[in-house]
């Protein structure tokens, strides 16, 4: 199949000797195309409105919003049409912070003091949203960070990560299926997820997966939801939707064929499930993403 969309792999000037970059931005409008990079990124929208595309999620952004974007997550910010009209009174302003993928790797992965920050960074592979209404301390830290340098900047940045990791006011943006990278804490659930990753595009009965896990169906359902936060049925549907999003962006194949390849029983079921998950039917999603 021929590719429909090239997602740019952005190379950032981040290194072990310079692991953190913090700067203010002031644009007439966002202009960078759909892209990804190995580094983490925090975007604080101090002023401006538009649409954000993170992984397989499309949503509005507003002044005050904060985004934590994990390593290699495709993303794109599109300012509202009014910002492209030449009106010099409209600007998008804020702060961008970028830091290397292995930032303080040993400490974060081995010291118990960093356990919440470790979880935050793990979750960021799907993108995390902090709402404008309830994040005044985060906004204050983000407004100060570019003004500092050296050790003072690093200490302020650690305070920012601490605040992000401790707030309950955050929302994971993209679904795990789009990323196809899930981190769990036991060998059993890892084995189950690996099996699902290889088989989710075909019908998998509850009896089959429960037998694979050496559990009865009721016990499996309780166990699976306790580990993933989702029912088995919804987890499979989310995996299929994530795969469908990739095919809609990257492959020049019909929506009917995508529905079949992703394991949906009919195109009507595919359309209904896709819209319920993302707010768009597949054709609208493809059209919107390819305009980026």
From TrEMBL:
Write out the entry's keywords from A to Z: DNA-binding, Transcription, Transcription regulation
Which organism is this entry from?
A: Flavobacterium palustre
Q: Which PANTHER family match?
A: ARAC-FAMILY TRANSCRIPTIONAL REGULATOR
CDD domains (alphabetical): cupin_MtlR-like_N
Question: Under which name does UniProt file this protein?
Answer: AraC family transcriptional regulator
Q: Name the InterPro entries for this protein.
A: AraC-bd, Homeodomain-like_sf, HTH_AraC, RmlC-like_jellyroll, RmlC_Cupin_sf, Tscrpt_reg_AraC-type_HTH
Q: Which Pfam families match?
A: AraC_binding, HTH_18
Q: What is the lineage of its organism?
A: Bacteria, Pseudomonadati, Bacteroidota, Flavobacteriia, Flavobacteriales
HTH araC/xylS-type domain location is 190-288
């Amino acid at each position: 199949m021929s590719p429909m969309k090239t997602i740019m792999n952005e190379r950032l000037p981040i290194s072990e000797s310079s692991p953190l970059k913090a700067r203010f931005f002031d644009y007439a409008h966002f202009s960078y195309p759909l892209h990804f990079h190995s580094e983490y990124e925090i975007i604080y929208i101090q002023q401006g409105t538009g649409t954000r595309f993170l992984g397989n999620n499309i949503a509005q952004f507003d002044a005050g919003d904060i985004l934590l974007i994990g390593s290699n997550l495709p993303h794109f910010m599109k300012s509202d049409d009014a910002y492209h009209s030449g009106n010099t009174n409209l600007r998008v302003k804020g702060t961008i912070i970028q830091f290397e993928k292995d930032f303080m790797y040993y400490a974060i992965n081995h010291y118990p003091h960093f356990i919440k920050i470790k979880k935050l960074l793990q979750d960021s592979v799907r993108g995390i949203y902090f709402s404008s209404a309830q994040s005044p301390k985060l906004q204050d830290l983000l407004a100060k960070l570019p003004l500092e340098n050296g050790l003072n900047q690093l200490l302020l940045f650690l305070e920012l990560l601490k605040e992000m990791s401790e707030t309950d006011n955050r929302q994971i943006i993209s679904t795990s299926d789009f990323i196809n990278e899930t981190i769990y804490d036991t060998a059993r659930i890892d084995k189950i997820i690996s099996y699902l990753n290889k088989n989710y595009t075909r019908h998998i009965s509850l009896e089959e997966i429960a037998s694979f896990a050496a559990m009865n169906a009721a016990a499996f359902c309780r166990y699976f939801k306790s580990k993933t936060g989702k029912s088995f049925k919804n987890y499979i549907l989310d995996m299929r939707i994530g795969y469908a999003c990739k095919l809609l962006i990257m492959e020049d194949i019909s929506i009917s064929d995508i529905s079949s390849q992703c394991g949906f029983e009919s195109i009507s079921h595919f359309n209904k499930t896709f819209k319920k998950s993302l707010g768009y039917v597949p054709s609208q999603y493809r059209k919107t993403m390819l305009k980026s």
